[in-house]
Amino acid sequence: MIFGKKKRILIDFFDVESGEKLGFDEKKAKHMPPSFVHETFVEFGGERWKLVSADPFEHKDYVKTGKVRIGLKRVKDETGELLGESLADLPAEKLFLSASRAAIFPDFSGSRSDKPILEMAAWEWRQVELVPESLRTSIGEEFTQVEQLKLAQVTVQDGREMYRKQHVRSASATALLGKSWKPERLRTTAFTFSTALDGLSFMGEKGLAEETFVFRMPSGIVLYGLADGGKVRCLGLRPAREKHDLIAGGDLNRLVLFLEKEELILVDWERLLVVEPNLAGMGAYLGIESPEAGAAPTPEAAANAAAEAKVDLPGPEVVAIVAPEVVDVATETGVDATSELEDTLSIEMEVERVDVPALEDDSLEDMAISLDLEADLLVGDVGEEE
Description:
Elements: E1 8-15, E2 21-28, E3 41-44, E4 47-55, H1 59-65, E5 67-74, H2 78-83, E6 100-102, E7 108-109, E8 118-120, E9 128-132, H3 136-153, E10 154-157, E11 160-163, E12 167-169, H4 183-190, E13 195-196, E14 200-202, E15 208-209, E16 212-216, E17 222-228, E18 231-232, E19 236-238, H5 245-262, E20 264-268, E21 273-275, H6 279-286, H7 299-308, H8 329-333, H9 338-352, H10 361-370
Parallel strand pairs: 1-5, 6-12, 8-14
Antiparallel strand pairs: 1-2, 3-4, 4-5, 7-15, 9-20, 10-11, 13-16, 16-17, 17-18, 17-19, 20-21
Helix pairs in contact: 7-10
């Protein structure tokens, strides 16, 4: 990074007529225009807006501050007037699968590899996410706005509810900006046994999302997000498609402990739902039976569960301790050779004894997990794209 210049620019959009904040966006500096001299249009909530002001105006200025404030003015019936068409002749209105969307989306580049990735529809991005408890009030206010939009802008297409406008969520735009988590450190410490995937992409995108991370927990729960500058900026969650009760119980414990420690709550924007960071609430939401807090499955339970799931669970290799046959030396020879026999036994035991390390419950769980990773394919199992 060039000293004194920001790699990413936070864009703040507002309505110049009402002063109302419209939303946020975030772009790499290299993807921003040299200036805003050219006529520019953007779309918010299914409506067309024209850019009328920018502060700072020049690229060289806003790369220093890392942010730019954009003033927009709603364009009214501009398309119909320019083309001289009646409303009946215009294309069908644009509809949205979800009533709200995140303010910040990732950029895409490169191409996909053959390695496992998480693929989702664009509208699913951060529909379920983990945010600080301190944002609860702001989240509640946005819930009210989304609920009002749902009532006023809903329509039905092919038996499915869709929306003419879309609310841009600003409360959680940069929810984890103050956190110093690194994705890999988060994965290996808070979510033991989880597996890092090669990346994330949206349906219809040829490349991978830049500066993102994805890791999959043994139960199939997926955590993903943006990592700007190597630090986690947002943390989305996707529930498991299929669950194994025993394994899922362990993951549920880890997730709840993490939420409690970091004072986070789960927010479901689609269902307008806040889930409290406890075993009962999270277990009910994820469809996992809540185990006792801190309880670990026994090896016998793990083996039985693995057998039911048709997973071959390798057991630890145990080498028997072999001692020589004990002979009554005094009887056969008439000689008291007790001390000599004890020395012989001691030597033989040292040679033949093999110390078997204790098998931790989590290790046994991990072996069952490692063989069950292919049960839930991530690529291509998401619903239709927006």
